[in-house]
Structures are given as C-alpha cells and as structure tokens.
Design a protein that fits this description.
about 100 residues; elongated
Length: about 100
C-alpha cells in the first residue's frame, strides 16, 4: 500500500516537472516590439517591466509593460525574449536578476 502511494507521488511529481519544462514552439516569427510610454515611476523603488508579445495559441497578443517593485533591493528586470530555434520561435520568460 505504501509503495503504491509512493509510486503515485513520484509519477505526479514527474508529470508536474515535465509540464513546467515544456516549451511552446511557434512557427510564425513574433512581431516587432511595441514602443511603450512608461510614464513616471510610482516611486524610486519601482523598476520598469517591459511588455512583450505572447502566443495565445492562434496569434500573438501584446502584454503591456508595468512598474513593479523588485522582490529584492537592487535587482533588475531581464526582459522576455523570443529565441529562434531550428523549428520555430520559443519564448524565454523574463525574470529578476
């Protein structure tokens, strides 16, 4: 009984990790990045998180940029970007560094 539960947990964990690591390959090149008006930062602590095109399954859709406070002081935002691979384009998510 314990072995069955353990095997089930291992299977669920592997499934969750496999889904998280899956890449969506888009055969259509992404459009040019929009030039966004940032406006004033709400405070000196805010950092601009740039907008990007996301693939919604049928077409590219623009996600607008926004001001955010970094999770840790002095971190900077590394923007989302589309990378060309042999079979299409893959979105590399933005992150704090």
């Amino acid at each position: 009984m314990v072995l069955k539960r353990l095997m089930g947990l291992v299977f669920i964990g592997a499934l969750a990790l496999g889904t998280a690591a899956a890449e969506v390959v888009v055969r259509i090149a992404p459009p040019r990045v929009h030039v966004e008006r940032r406006g004033r930062a709400p405070s000196r602590n805010h950092v601009w998180v740039s907008g990007y095109h996301r693939w919604d399954g049928n077409a590219y859709a623009w996600n607008e940029g926004r001001w955010e406070v970094p999770p840790q002081p002095h971190q900077r935002w590394v923007a989302h970007r589309w990378v060309h691979r042999s079979n299409g384009y893959v979105l590399v998510d933005g992150h704090w560094r």
